[in-house]
Amino acid sequence: MEDLKSKGYYFVADVHLGLKTGNPVARERQFIAFLEGLDTHTAGLFLLGDIFDFWFEYKHVIPRGYTRVLGALAHVVDRGIPVHFFPGNHDLWTFGYLEQELGIQVHRNTLYIPLDGKYFLLGHGHRMGRYPFKNRVLHNMFHSRILQKLFSWLHPRWAFALAGKWSAFNRNKEFATYRFKGEKEPVYQYATHYGKPIDYCIVGHLHTSARCSLPGGGELIVLEDWLSVGHGTGAVRGEVGVFWGAKEGEVQVIKAAVMVHPD
């Protein structure tokens, strides 16, 4: 009989691969080590947005610099482990490459899914709830098919350079630790009024670590990014959410540099 403890679902957000902040080389190596450390009995890997600091697909061009990560993701899929990708506000411009070349399942909206008897609401978080007006305007612009088409007319050299400078400027400017607002948080309100039973709502986006109970009895989990932990030249240790299945019945959040599955 299969040991249910080894049947794990894993949740990761905000690795921001490619961002020249902290220790980008160590961050990439740690993420690859995490992918390679997934046990073959892993039931699913959920990448909850902003895995890449910038991603934009042209018809015949994808961003440079993620070769080893893409290979590791392809290997995870080839081992029979389902990989689910949720576009964040930094890597939403995927138009088929991840699905067709790597076999990854892309979810462009929130996903409500039962996993071993528990109900999960999953997403990046940036469009879950009513954020300030300037944030909503910016996110709507990013999701505009017209603006995406106009951006694609730029030569990749200039488009990627522009995106990189913009991302680095915003991340360095906003690197102060975010203070979770609890019940006032838009994603908290979104989960509270979702209209379906939720055992766990798991998101990223806020670049902080938080857990709080929902009025309906479930729990909101915000995963910390892979930037704030180990910022600078130290070790990169991002947060990983792990659900061991019905036998354990709860989600653990661990700071795991490499190995995340139990012996």
Structure report:
This protein has 263 residues and is α/β, with parallel strands linked by helices. It has a single domain (4-255), classed as Purple Acid Phosphatase, chain A, domain 2, CATH 3.60.21.10. Helix content is 29%, strand content 17%. The chain has helices spanning 24-36, 67-78, 97-102, 133-143, 145-152, 156-173, 186-192; strands spanning 9-12, 44-47, 83-85, 105-106, 111-115, 118-122, 200-203, 210-213, 219-222, 239-243, 251-255. A six-stranded mixed β-sheet has the order 4-3-2-1-10-11, covered by helices on one side. Strands 5-6-7-9-8 form a five-stranded mixed β-sheet, with helices on one face. α1 packs parallel to α2.
Secondary-structure blueprint:
Elements: E1 9-12, H1 24-36, E2 44-47, H2 67-78, E3 83-85, H3 97-102, E4 105-106, E5 111-115, E6 118-122, H4 133-143, H5 145-152, H6 156-173, H7 186-192, E7 200-203, E8 210-213, E9 219-222, E10 239-243, E11 251-255
Parallel strand pairs: 1-2, 2-3, 3-4, 6-7, 7-9
Antiparallel strand pairs: 1-10, 5-6, 8-9, 10-11
Helix pairs in contact: 1-2
